[in-house]
Amino acid sequence: MARNRLAWGLLAALVIIVAVAAVIAIIGRGDRATQPLTAYTAPALAKMPAAASVPGVPGEWHIPAGDYASTRYSDLSQITTQNVGQLKPAFTFDTGFLKGHEAAPLIVGSTMYLITPYPNVVYALDLTKPGAAVKWRFDPKPDPKSQGVACCDVVSRGMSYDNGRLFMVTLDGQVIALDANSGAQVWRTPIADISKGETVTMAPLVAAGKVLVGDAGGEFGVRGSLTALDEGSGKIVWRAYSTGPDKDVLIGPNFHPYYAQDRGKDLGVTSWPGEAWKQGGGTVWGWISYDPELRTIYYGTSNPGPWNPEQRPGDNKWTAGVFARDIDTGQAKWFYQSNPHDLYDHDDINELILLDMPVDGKMRKVIVHPGRTGYMYVLDRLTGQVLSADPYSYITAYTGVDLKTGRLQHNPAKEPVSGRVVRGICPAPPGGKDWNPSAFSPRTGLVYVPHLNLCNDNALSQPNYIPGTAYLGVEAKMYAGPGGNRGVLTAWDPVRRKAAFEIKEDLPLWSGALATAGDVVFYGTLDGWFKAIDARSGKLLWKFKTESGIVGQPVTYRGPDGRQYVAIFSGVGGWVGGLVSNGFDHRDPTGGLGIFNAVQDLPKKSPRGGRLYAFALPR
Amino acid sequence: MPSPCRASLLIVALLAGGCDQMRNDPRGHPLPETPPLVSTVLSPVRADPRAADYQNNAFQVSNGQLYYHWMNCTGCHSEGGGGIGPSLMDVNWRYGSTMEDVVQSISNGRPNGMPAFGGKMTAAQIWQTAAYVRSLSQHVPQSIRSGRSEGLSVGEPSTLRDPHPYRAVTPKQDEATVK
Fold first, then answer.
1. Annotated catalytic, A231?
2. ipTM over 0.90
3. Rounded distance, CA A305 to CA A283, Å?
4. C-alpha pair distances (Å), A326 with each of A232, A240, A258
5. A308 included as an active-site residue
6. pLDDT of A412-446, one tens digit each?
7. pTM, rounded to two decimals
8. Which H or E run includes B7?
9. Considering only residues 150 to 179 of chain B, which have any Cβ-Cβ distance to chain A shorter than 8 Å?
10. What pLDDT shows up at residue B49?
């Protein structure tokens, strides 16, 4: 009897709680709907750090991210929300190659520099000549065998410029300095071994006299590392591995991780079974940000290898996390492992946007970081503390991030296990967002995140380590997440910790974003549309159909004629577009590590291509 | 209740491939281990007598499927659709589609990234793998192909795939509709 009464009492309490929650939810929604979307401004704006700009002339574009803080924001304001509708192609340039064109063009003075996918040919275009004539061409002749160990198309994500020299990397891992004026090679240093499956696809970053380059090959059982070369001579200054003993990882007395999970001696060995760390991945194939004031670089490490998590019990340090290092010595300052013992290929290599912004009423030096896990991390860049981690993408694989321990919380129902196909894992292996970088505008305080809405089914198998072959052990099949749209552009307010607006895109978004002082944001789609939206409302202002799908990074610059230009590569490829650029077969749902199943319609929507477009307003 | 489509596929398969299987000993007869083919650009080796024995035999093809997974072939070629290495289920064969060509590719590798497995597998294992690889593009009769995948798979068994070799499909007209 007494138990019965108690049960009724509990039920009544539950009903009241649900009712109150519903009322709060309705009020909350009403509040959101009344916000005028046409004039969105964050309450207290996030800002770029004062010393983030790259040395050089305003209106040029020297590194893929535009500045060391990785904001991809330009002060140019000739193109505005009012006149962007009149944009017209000013010139185009065909590279002659048809693989994924993911690189950002660079603009220095009156010259534009382009790098193609493998074989990584570099072009210098003279912007003062009609049609932007070729000034010089450099062919580095990488080893053709490197194509066989490049996971997911043979892309290059760009070059960096400093002090009269261009710095590039070939797919087979040769770092090359070129005289920007003549295209003559100044030095060449190999940093990768393709016989072990090491390649390089990232854009090198040049800062403080160092050229920083990491390896790729997390799908081939390589040992990830970041190498710093002397800008003048090409000599290796330091190399920091992502696995192995502390001396190899450059962990010393100055290493102070915020969370207990990242503290201990030689965790890069002891968090692995046996000697598995030697094939443990943790490659560095994404983006590096630099804070000149703190003389600190920030970058993320990739997934551990193999993909099959049952073969590597343990936290698998120092994979799938963010490192802060001293740029001069390479010594680690802190590490935050956002994804210990990764289960789903959720690397942590995505861009790290350095901002100064109010958190709980106090200005903090932070990193805003859209993770593959689907969470938008705000980290304190002095300590590595997670200040917040909110979902910006649909997630079933995790239930949250414990801010006390920093630990990612797994959903046990979605953990892969041998002998069972686990279905409905979201996000899929490319994550809530892959490599393609976001942009930040200090005028709106918003981060513009081009990302994915993909889920997958997962079955484990047992891979064997054979050097130079893929080391995976997971069969995946991806498909669209809830809503059926496979891509999303989210304008994220890092201060309010929520989306200001979202634009649903049918195909996965695999292009970078660009924000300008004209309050226009640019990005491209896999079916070849290059779009301009209003940075405050998300309203589509202009679009142009290019010859192929867009997986590149838009940039903007002031041309020699004084006009503002916007430039982008069109040329489908990369992991998602490799289906088209490599002529793969969409009938195998596991093809391309399972991604082809999600984009079976792509071959009909985008032909191959390789063309640069530069747009400007009519004279 | 089998679908009429699958039933008709089965009949076609029996007619097309059944005779081959009947003619061959399903377990296969012992095949001698011989040194792998020697690759020369000018005089490619053709018409090896072992080719037919391997590719017309369900046991050999099924063993090849095992090695295809054990040797990480799936990592690059998936279950035939490709991803890092080329697709193996279409009609495009960069280095030739005969058994001899495929054996050469596996043994010695190819210049655009295919690694050499010559020192890592025996000749018989390579021939078996080649037979399985050719079965992905329907070069092997349906009755010889393996009806189940090796281990768990999110895909479907190869015997349920279109029995016809891949042909380019003309796009339908209603593709332009925007969702």
1. no
2. no
3. 10
4. 19, 11, 17
5. no
6. 999 999 999 999 999 999 999 999 999 999 999 99
7. 0.88
8. helix B4-23
9. 151-156, 161-162, 166, 171, 175, 178-179
10. 84
